[in-house]
Every structure is written in structure tokens, then in C-alpha cells.
Amino acid sequence: MPDPKHARRSRPRHAPRRRTQRARARRPHAIDLAGRVAVVTGGSRGIGRACVLALSAAGADVVFSYRSRAKAARELERRVRAAGGRAVAVHADVSRPRDCDRLVRSALLRFGRADILVNNAGIWEPEGAEVATLSDAQWEKTLRVNLDGSFYCTRAAVPAMRERRWGRIVNIASTAGQRGEALHSDYAASKGGIISFTKALSTELGPHGILVNAVAPWWVDTDMSHDTLEREGPAAGESSPLGRVATPEEIAGPVLFLCSDLASFITGEILNVNGGTILCG
Ligand code: NAP
Fold first, then answer.
1. Based on the structure, what is the number of domains in the chain?
2. What are the percentages of helix, strand and coil residues in the chain, rounded to 5?
3. Per-residue model confidence as pLDDT tens digits over 104-117
4. CA–CA separation, 211 vs 200, rounded Å?
């Protein structure tokens, strides 16, 4: 027989955590995502992992994808659970539409809703290539993961957001999509596409209560950039007015803000999170 004390405390599988009116009245500008469910692509490491931790610390239940790092994904699940949150890792390759459908469906099955989508999964080929020698395979791979993947996940998530007339989509762009990046035209094109995709969706989905924004980082110290940053040494960060590159947490904070009620009148924004490196409005 279940212990009645425990039964009272445990939530049914789908039940979201409730925000307490009193807690909100006490801290009106605190970010509280209790009751929200977030889907984060590429959550196993880097910026995506920091987003999972930030969203979960703010009270959201999180479903995140990984592609190759199953162990890291399981560890993150455990870490969220140990802190009293709920996170579920799903193996999904965002370049495959069916995987994106399954990722969003996992959130609906496990938590009954999908309110927030962070399109973060991405790739960048450190070696780069001049456009005259850039292979079809490299071009297609970058576009499929970085741009098509964001489209597939967005398409899968929007119906659930529309149904509730509430949604937040945050796309991870890049300064490369704003000012270009020599020898990385595939990556720059994919991120430029993300920026236009964000703007188009903000006008299309605003009337349905869904806000769509992008965060555009410059260098962030993650596995993606680590070898390049090591090779370049301190000079890499020194070209920024802040004299350094960003941490993944410094990208996750602005993502969290855009998902929160504090950003309820912001849509179609490309938020520069680049340490003042490029100033574009
Ligand atoms: P990262 O450390 O290399 O992590 C990439 C994440 O994306 C991992 O979780 C990886 O999964 C996942 N991923 C890669 N290909 C995938 C695919 N086909 N399907 C599903 N997931 C896939 O990169 P990061 O630096 O955190 O980058 C995150 C985002 O920020 C990217 O969109 C990137 O373009 C953007 N960004 C990064 C920087 C930077 O300097 N780092 C700057 C500007 C923008 P596994 O771990 O399972 O392989």
C-alpha cells in the first residue's frame, strides 16, 4: 500500500509543477518556468547542455536530444534529477525529419506539452574551405543539420504551442550569419538562414501567442571551438571589447530570458551575445 504522505507529494507523470502565486508576488522579476516543458536540441554538451541546466533550474521540465554522446546525455539527466528537476534525453539526429517528430512527441508523451523549443544543435567544420573547393557533401551536411534541423523541429513543435496559444522558440544563430565568415560559407549561410527563418516565423506565429527569437553568439568555449581557440591562444578573445570569449552559461542566460515572461513583448529579435564584437541592430 502506498505511503499516503508520499502519495500526496508525488506528482502524476504528466502533472506539471505549479507556480505558487505567493512566490511570484514575492519575486515579480524572477524567472519561473514551473509548469512549462522545454525541448532543447543538442543538449548533451556545450551551449545546449547549459540551456538544459538553466531551463531546468528555472523549473521547466526538459526533453533534450543528443546524437553521439549517449553517456554525456545520461549524466545530464542524472544531474538534473539530483537537483530535483526532470529531464529526458532522446537520441535524435536533427537532419532527419522523423527524429525531430519523435523528439517533440517524446515531450508530449512524457510531460503532456511542449511550450519551449531551443533549436541549438549545430555543426561547424573547423578546417573550413574556400568556396571553389567546398564539397557538395560539406555544404549539404551543414545546411541539413543547422538549418533544415531547426525547420523540422519547429514544424513538429508548433501545433502543440498553437493549441495552447503560448510558445517560445529560440534559435541559436551566430555572428557568422550576421557578418559572414571567410572559409565557412556553408556555416555562414546556414546561420543567415536561421536569422531569416526567425524573422519570418515571428510575424507568422505572433498572432498565435508564439514568440520567436534568436541568440547570436560570437566565440563560445565549447567542444566545437576548443581546438581553434587553443591554436589561436589569447589573441582569439582579445579582439573582443571584453577581452575574452564566452562561456556556454553566458549564452544560456539570454536564452532563458527569452523563454521567460520578462521577454513577453520581444519577438523577431536577433540578440547579440557577442561581447560587443559586432554591433548590429
Ligand atoms: P558543440 O559543443 O559541438 O555541441 C553540439 C551539440 O549539437 C551536441 O549536443 C551534439 O550532439 C549536437 N549535434 C550535432 N549534430 C547533430 C545532429 N545532426 N543531430 C542532433 N544533434 C546534433 O557545439 P556548441 O558550441 O555548443 O554549439 C551549439 C550551437 O551554438 C550551434 O548551433 C553552433 O553553431 C552555435 N554557435 C556556437 C559558437 C561557438 O563558438 N561554440 C558560436 C556561435 C554559435 P552530440 O554531443 O550527441 O554529438
1. 1
2. 50, 15, 35
3. 999 999 999 999 99
4. 11
Domain membership of residue 121 (yes or no) is yes
Residue 11 falls within a domain, yes or no? no
Q: Is 238 helix (H, G, I), strand (E, B) or coil?
A: helix
Does residue 116 sit within a domain? yes
* Atom in ligand 1 nearest the alpha carbon of residue 173: 44
- Cβ neighbour number for residue 41 with a 10 Å cutoff: 29
Query: Ligand 1 centroid to 122 CA: how many Å?
Result: 4
Contact 170, 217 (CB under 8 A): no
**Cα R_g (the chain), whole angstroms:** 19
Residue 27 binned pLDDT confidence (cut-offs 50, 70, 90): confident
Residue 95 has what pLDDT?
A: 98
Mind listing the pLDDT tens digit for each residue in 111-134?
999 999 999 999 999 999 999 999
Side-chain half-sphere of 20: how many Cα atoms within 13 Å? Answer: 4
Contact between 87 and 80 (Cβ < 8 Å): yes
Question: Is 152 assigned a catalytic role?
Answer: no
Span 180-218, pLDDT tens digits: 999 999 999 999 999 999 999 999 999 999 999 999 999
Say if 20 falls within a structural domain: no
**Cα 163 to averaged position of ligand 1 atoms, centre (Å):** 30
- Which CATH number fits the domain that encloses residue 204? 3.40.50.720
Q: Residue 221: which domain range?
A: 31-273
Q: Cell 579582439 maps to which residue? A: 239
Asked whether 66 lines ligand 1 (CB < 6 A), one says yes
Pocket test residue of 71, 103, 218, 220 for ligand 1, highest count of atoms within 8 A of CB: 220
Total-model pTM = 0.93
